[in-house]
Amino acid sequence: MTKMLAVLAMLHLVLFPATEKKTVTIKGSDTMVILVQRWAEVYGSQSTTVQFQVTGGGSGTGISALLNGTTDICSSSRPIKPTEVSQLKSKYKSKGVEVAVARDGISVYIHKDNPVKKLTVAQLRDIFLGKTTNWKQVGGRDAKIVLYSRENNSGTYEFFKEHVLEKQDFAPEAQHMVGTGALVNAVRKDPNAIGYGGVAYAEGVKDLMLAKDASSAYIEPTEANILKGTYPLSRFLYFYLRERPSGDVKKFIDWVLSKDGQKVVTEVGYIPVKKF
Known about the structure:
The chain is an alpha/beta fold. It has two domains: 22-103 and 236-268, Periplasmic binding protein-like II (D-Maltodextrin-Binding Protein, domain 2); 104-234, Periplasmic binding protein-like II (D-Maltodextrin-Binding Protein, domain 2). It contains ten helices and eleven strands. Strands 1, 2, 3, 4, 6, 7, 8, 9 and 11 form a nine-stranded mixed β-sheet that branches. The protein has a two-stranded parallel ribbon with strand order 5-10. The termini are far apart. 37% of the residues are buried.
């Protein structure tokens, strides 16, 4: 009987071989890693044909991987640059495909015990340029401000540099962290620290309210404020592809933009691109 069962099992494997899942690679934004991983887990658990390999490294790293053909999808927290589009067109005869998959706000994190509650964008700029160096200059304690930034291949770094610093260089003493998680952890441990990153990472730290200028209202980085466009630092999060998606990749992206996929966006702590 045992031999018969073994023979039947072997016949089943021959007649109905196990289908090997296709691996789809997604590389890029550290800000988006927790969101993309969750999408991959949920969708992958429902799919019999596809599995995912998700890695970070920064938006610039993801776009480089897209250009050299080592990722199927690039996740990016910044728009692709014209020079990068030109490289895609030169190498692949395509301008690439941009898909906005979520919305995000850039939170400014400080330690929970820091009494400061709000800053204008100009005050924030002066802090990260090294012009304002003591918390008492912005209504806090008499203590040196400790700066934490993302590394320069990060889309969040580029967004902050363009929209807050007006393309000026960060203060030399700013400490550049490899990932947003590491930056938040550093701020969480340092009463005099300040840093920035995606809203979904703001755990164990305090979000500052921001105002566009001294005559504007101070706004919290909530979903409602980001959707209304009143919070000064908000952006889209993107997938980039070398060409129009097809097959399993298209099915995955269609799901990401569906009600179920956008529900994951909310669960992780980001903002959907559309309401259902």
